Amino acid sequence: MRTIEWQDGLVVTIDQTKLPSELVYLKMKKCHEVASAINDMKLRGAPLIGVAAAYGLALTAYYSKAERKEDLINEIEQSAEILRRTRPTAMNPFWAINRIARKAREASGDAKDVAKVIVDEAQRMADEDVETNRKIGEHGSKLIDDGDTVLTHCNTGSLATVDYGTALGVIRAAWEQGKTVSVIATETRPKLQGARLTAYELKRDGIPVTLITDSMVGSVMSRQMVDKVFVGADRIVRDAVINKIGTYTIAVLAHEHGIPFYVAAPTSTMDLSHTSNEAVIEERNPEEVTHFFSRRIAPEGVKAMNPAFDVTPMKYVSAIVTEKGVLSPEDLKQLHEV
Amino acid sequence: MRTIEWQDGLVVTIDQTKLPSELVYLKMKKCHEVASAINDMKLRGAPLIGVAAAYGLALTAYYSKAERKEDLINEIEQSAEILRRTRPTAMNPFWAINRIARKAREASGDAKDVAKVIVDEAQRMADEDVETNRKIGEHGSKLIDDGDTVLTHCNTGSLATVDYGTALGVIRAAWEQGKTVSVIATETRPKLQGARLTAYELKRDGIPVTLITDSMVGSVMSRQMVDKVFVGADRIVRDAVINKIGTYTIAVLAHEHGIPFYVAAPTSTMDLSHTSNEAVIEERNPEEVTHFFSRRIAPEGVKAMNPAFDVTPMKYVSAIVTEKGVLSPEDLKQLHEV
Prior knowledge:
Two copies of one chain form a homodimer.
Chain A: E1 4-6, E2 11-14, E3 25-28, H1 31-39, H2 46-63, H3 69-84, H4 92-106, H5 111-141, E4 149-152, H6 167-176, E5 182-186, H7 193-205, E6 209-212, H8 217-222, E7 228-231, E8 235-237, E9 240-244, H9 247-257, E10 261-264, E11 270-271, H10 287-290, E12 291-292, E13 295-296, E14 303-304, E15 309-313, E16 319-322, E17 325-327, H11 329-337
Parallel strand pairs in A: 4-5, 4-7, 5-6, 7-10, 8-11, 10-16
Antiparallel strand pairs in A: 1-2, 2-3, 8-9, 9-15, 12-13, 16-17
């Protein structure tokens, strides 16, 4: 199945905090349940939480008792506000909310008609996400040569999207074309998406993967074990790529070693009317750093930082792979000016 | 008490794998127990395992039933071989073993006399380590300005030495001089010496510390939160500093951000007759990466790398603080040539 599905008024997804040891499905009937799941990172990955937000609004619409369009729109706006407060950095939920809200406003008829439009639009966005990722894979796979070892960070696979993945989708596409590809996956502290999710997906698909700690990136690069880096993005602003904490560290190291650093993301991640100094970097609970699952690792009372994302200036980015093709940071600038 | 002590035929130390949740003392009577404790990282830190190796040989000498000097020397050589096989990268155990062996060979008298010489020499080395660290602290503290935030990696404090510490000793010395210093400590995966040990020592001493994951180094540097980096060393060769995995990553980032990168280590860590391509980098059990304590985090069967150290070329090193003063990488070259 897809990572997220709409089943007649039920949003079904995998609880990613339980992977890889348990495969637990979450069934949600209310928008605030979707918001909580996003908050707790049961659902994560910028494209996935974008579609999840759309489905959250679809749940509100589906179960609404409103009769007039304006009343439904008010309910949708309240649900949207709950969703907007979950995770401020990823662009995709904001994009998804705006798209649903616009569609709802433009729809004609009573609340029932508009609700149907909303549910259909959320469904369409889920379908589009898969198609978009396939196209990202197709474009990006041209950048991968037979025999390449690709380093990747966090999880950007089918678990981070509706299906297929962005950066991991590129690797998957190259693999499906018969290219020999190996992956070095960083474990991605504090939440270990690399160790838990990327390793799980690649192993399932038979793509060779070697796990490293985040601290080993410099070591593997200096030992010439990395040909290319592919990562995803949570928000692409005019001057920088904002992505999972640790991305910037990898980008600087890639730059120092002359290793191409590619970002793979749908255009729905783009926020080209803003720059990085306007971006909000989510600061999560420091217990994610001082604890490991429920086990305390640092002494009682020790302060910790926990920014969930960092900012990689375009200087370090070789290219951005989107569903529309491979763009240079220069193309991006022009895209904005147009 | 000191981190390691000789108590009439007993070597007493702290089991560092149990910190910070439990303070458990290890009492060892045999050299192979010392070797096992080093192997399992119950004892760790280059200066500490140097002195531990000397004490291991002291245990062999103390309990030896040999009557003739040659027989004792043979036993010492066998114990030395066990110790040499524990952790190949750190220089200090090799240095300590050579020093004890030379002292034993030069000693006159029967096995009893030589045994006494060995025990005394091991004691002297422990005392010297504390004095050496104090001097490193004194020299290094001149590099720290009032108000500095220092980023450090792994643990280089009293727990990594007999007492006081190397890089953490420098921070401690600056603090004792009344300078306001804050520390950002990396957690240091996979063994978490930063989260477990550095945070523990600094908190105990009242020095402000903020814990980060290794992946946050680039982020805190780009946000101008770091004034200087101080790390220790496991082996300093002519062209590079070999230290805990993750050090090289930090050095490249410091270089990119124009942040001074200092190494603090006793001259017993120096191996200037060799270069980095001759160095052996210990590869430890991959389960340290795929598991967290005893809990599996990566899926069954996933491959992992686990180099315990990495290599930082001198290009990235601003200076090396030793008990003899602050040396530039250039001084080091001359030191070798002399």
